[in-house]
């Protein structure tokens, strides 16, 4: 029997909810930790719901409205669906081979479905465990800390969250005692909440002894109520800065020379550096950094002060002896710092930042031990074992607290590196990962972890604790860290996963920034997971083209690996429920369908569809599952491919027979599709999915010469039929509207 996911969806409501979710809100699981390409929980929930609900024309209006209410956050609608599923008795196990952040497992748990999830990346695996596995283990557990309880009764992860907050506050107090000398007050007794720095290099002019400030911007604040800027001045051959209030003159905004590369003018002699010179000096570790301004906030008013000797001296701490190891990848596509001699992850942090993060990270283990002792005193099992061994007792509980506190340290690292720039409009700090890369930053901001600045410990702790409190604590989740190509997949399961997008995001390389800190905090909790210095690099989302590997070789490897993956997914999938495969549809894929071509070199989209069919799947639907607002600038659209084991294929048919069948069956399928609410921008892809269901219903479609019709040719035929149908529908709608107006 067809499911709603194969016929009709309240697509507009689903996409609206996913876009709102991406915007972020307090208490959302995404606030536990940063991750790239996170699966929206709302669209995952809708897809899974529609995949288990049987389509019935008589109840379609009611059922589609129920799905729409569920994704909007209606708890009664969700409980109605859960109750309906419980009445079914046997329910499928959901298998997510590329769990990433864990959005799909969380959604499956909300429906009461058992989850098996996996990811090769240890950071992603830890996030999924924290979001889905750990809360389910300790659901309903009251807090164990010795302080005053905040509630009289606890449900879900409320107790877990309260303990995260309690032991996090203890951790902050201990860190403040250890780091007080590194974060002094100003002479007037104010607490600095940020220090602005500029990188420097010795002037290439042999006759000049100046260290040139590499000032990408000297503007400190350009808000309407407070405008400040800094001016470099030379005094006896020494560089200093003066702080001015008011609008910065255009010619004083920066000493960076227009054009490509790192070209800066010396304020003493006028010499201009070359990009090659800066890189050469960087490679020789001859780039420095000088404090440019101290930022305070008194009664909501930001002030920018010339750094005193006390402030300068406080920052001149020794780099800790034991620092997290790990080399930054040299590909400039995601990482530009190595081109300037910043080659180790430790190089991304100032000595004071490194000392601070190491202190917080080391205190995580002490907080974890304290929580375990309190859990034991509260009556939790002493012999249940560790988290890694599946434990649910005192030791595992303490380790769980440690994981969430390690996330806080990781979030602090994101806001406390020398690649954090200063927002002149808002007067706060940008995180390291403003985008999916680590670009070079010349003028950077350092925050005070004990103040109110962005990235301070107190704020980040509260964000993590609030997210823990709102975790679902649903059905059990089994989470593993393995290679999806070589591991043994579970059998007879409903697949729901984000397929790796070719050359999209370098998860493995980017996540090393966070891995090195997780490893320092948690290597005793999960020794096997954190055995290596950096994350595994065998990810399917190919990045090797950015390391000098020929494009043809990289693409051939990706396609061979994906073919193998589709075969494994087919073998593990159940016949009763469709497989849900999220993928990336790009503009050039649509261009191929519109404008034709030989099809001799299929796009990644055509290759994916062909490989699914070759593995044995039928493609029954394609849905645009957006997580970003519609934009002409966007190169791609996230889509959901709905596929089933093709055990009921009809055999062979001729090309003409296929076209006739398409013309006959497509209108009925599209009539069902319009039962849901589909926005105009999503109509074409949704229609194409219904056309593909006709094509894939046959084992093969034969051309006049006896050759098999390719997916490329089929898509062209389907595209023309869908386009024609949509135009006819629009014309009929316009005609009806005109007639109604006349009446």
TrEMBL record:
Residues 8-56 form the DUF1156 domain. Signal peptide: none annotated. InterPro entries: DUF1156, SAM-dependent_MTases_sf. It comes from the Bacteria. Pfam families: DUF1156. This is DUF1156 domain-containing protein. It comes from Pseudoflavonifractor intestinihominis.
């Amino acid at each position: 029997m067809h499911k709603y996911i194969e016929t009709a969806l309240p697509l507009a409501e689903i996409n609206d909810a996913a876009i709102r979710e991406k915007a972020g809100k307090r208490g959302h699981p995404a606030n536990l930790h940063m991750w790239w390409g996170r699966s929206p929980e709302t669209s995952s929930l809708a897809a899974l719901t529609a995949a288990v609900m049987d389509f019935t024309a008589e109840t379609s209006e009611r059922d589609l409205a129920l799905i729409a209410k569920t994704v909007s956050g209606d708890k009664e609608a969700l409980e109605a669906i859960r109750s309906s599923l419980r009445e079914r008795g046997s329910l499928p196990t959901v298998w997510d081979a590329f769990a990433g952040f864990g959005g799909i497992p969380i959604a499956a748990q909300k429906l009461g479905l058992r989850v098996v999830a996996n990811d090769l990346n240890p950071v992603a695996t830890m996030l999924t465990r924290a979001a889905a596995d750990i809360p389910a283990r300790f659901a309903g557990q009251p807090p164990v800390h010795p302080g005053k309880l905040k509630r009289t009764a606890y449900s879900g992860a409320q107790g877990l969250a309260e303990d995260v907050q309690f032991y996090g506050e203890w951790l902050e107090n201990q860190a403040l005692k250890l780091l007080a000398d590194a974060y002094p007050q100003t002479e007037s007794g104010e607490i600095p909440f940020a220090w602005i720095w500029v990188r420097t290099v010795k002037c290439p002019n042999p006759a000049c002894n100046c260290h040139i400030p590499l000032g990408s911007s000297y503007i400190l604040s350009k808000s309407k109520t407070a405008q400040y800027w800094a001016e470099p001045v030379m005094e006896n051959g020494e560089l200093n800065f003066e702080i001015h209030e008011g609008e910065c003159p255009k010619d004083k905004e920066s000493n960076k020379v227009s054009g490509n590369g790192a070209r800066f003018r010396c304020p003493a002699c006028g010499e201009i550096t070359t990009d090659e010179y800066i890189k050469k000096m960087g490679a020789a570790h001859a780039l420095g950094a000088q404090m440019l301004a101290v930022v305070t906030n008194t009664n909501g008013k930001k002030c920018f002060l010339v750094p005193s000797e006390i402030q300068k001296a406080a920052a001149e701490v020794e780099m800790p002896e034991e620092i997290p190891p790990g080399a930054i990848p040299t590909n400039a596509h995601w990482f530009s710092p190595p081109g300037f001699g910043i080659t180790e992850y430790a190089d991304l942090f100032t000595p004071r930042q490194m000392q601070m993060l190491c202190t917080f990270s080391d205190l995580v283990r002490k907080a974890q031990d304290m929580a375990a002792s309190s859990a034991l005193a509260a009556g939790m099992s002493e012999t249940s074992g560790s988290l890694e061994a599946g434990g649910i007792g005192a030791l595992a509980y303490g380790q769980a607290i440690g994981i969430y506190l390690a996330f806080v340290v990781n979030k602090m690292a994101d806001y406390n590196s020398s690649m954090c720039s200063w927002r002149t409009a808002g007067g706060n700090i940008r995180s390291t990962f403003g985008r999916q890369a680590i670009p070079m930053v010349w003028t950077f901001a350092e925050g005070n972890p004990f103040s109110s600045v962005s990235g301070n410990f107190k704020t980040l702790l509260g964000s993590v604790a609030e997210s823990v409190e709102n975790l679902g604590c649903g059905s059990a989740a089994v989470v593993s860290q393995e290679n999806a190509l070589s591991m043994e997949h579970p059998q007879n399961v409903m697949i729901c996963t984000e397929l790796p997008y070719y050359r999209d995001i370098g998860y493995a390389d980017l996540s090393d920034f966070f891995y090195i800190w997780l490893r320092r905090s948690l290597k005793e909790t999960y020794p096997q997971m954190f055995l290596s210095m950096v994350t595994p690099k065998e990810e399917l989302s190919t990045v090797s083209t950015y390391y000098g590997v020929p494009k043809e070789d990289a693409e051939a490897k990706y396609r061979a690996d994906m073919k193998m993956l589709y075969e494994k997914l087919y073998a593990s999938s159940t016949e009763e429920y469709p497989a849900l495969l999220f993928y990336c549809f790009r503009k050039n894929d649509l261009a191929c369908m519109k404008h034709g071509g030989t099809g001799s070199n299929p796009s990644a989209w055509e290759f994916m569809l062909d490989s699914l069919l070759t593995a044995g799947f039928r493609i029954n639907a394609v849905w645009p599952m957006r997580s970003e607002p519609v934009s002409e600038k966007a190169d791609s659209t996230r889509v959901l491919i709905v596929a089933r084991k093709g055990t009921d294929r009809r055999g062979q048919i001729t090309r003409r027979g296929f076209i006739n069948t398409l013309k006959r069956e497509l209108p009925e399928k599209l009539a069902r599709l319009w039962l849901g609410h589909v926005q105009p921008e999503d109509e074409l892809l949704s229609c194409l999915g219904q056309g593909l269901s006709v094509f894939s219903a046959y084992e093969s479609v034969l051309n006049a010469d006896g050759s098999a019709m390719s997916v490329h040719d089929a898509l062209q035929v389907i595209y023309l039929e869908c386009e024609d149908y949509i135009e006819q529908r629009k014309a009929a709608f316009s005609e009806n509207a005109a007639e109604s107006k006349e009446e």
